[in-house]
Please model this.
Amino acid sequence: MSEYVSNVLITFDCFVSALTGGKPGETLSGRAGSAWLEGKLRGEVFCPVIDVLMHIVGQFPTWRGHCVAAIEGDKRRAQVVLDQRT
Model:
C-alpha cells in the first residue's frame, strides 16, 4: 500500500472517530485500545473485533494487540506533527 493511500485511510479513520466523539487525531483502533485498557465495556466489545479484522486483512501479525498498539501509532503521528512545528 502506498504512503498516500495509507495516509488517506488513517485520515478517514480519524474523521470517523471524531464524528463519534473521539479526540482529534485519534483512530477508532486507538480509542478501542484505550477503552479496553480502562476496562470499559466498549473496549471489551470493539477491541477483539477490530483486532481480528486487522489480522485478517494482514495489517497486524497476531489476532490480539492491534488496538493497544494503535495507541502508540496515534501518539507517534501526533509527535511527527509537533516536531515539524519546531
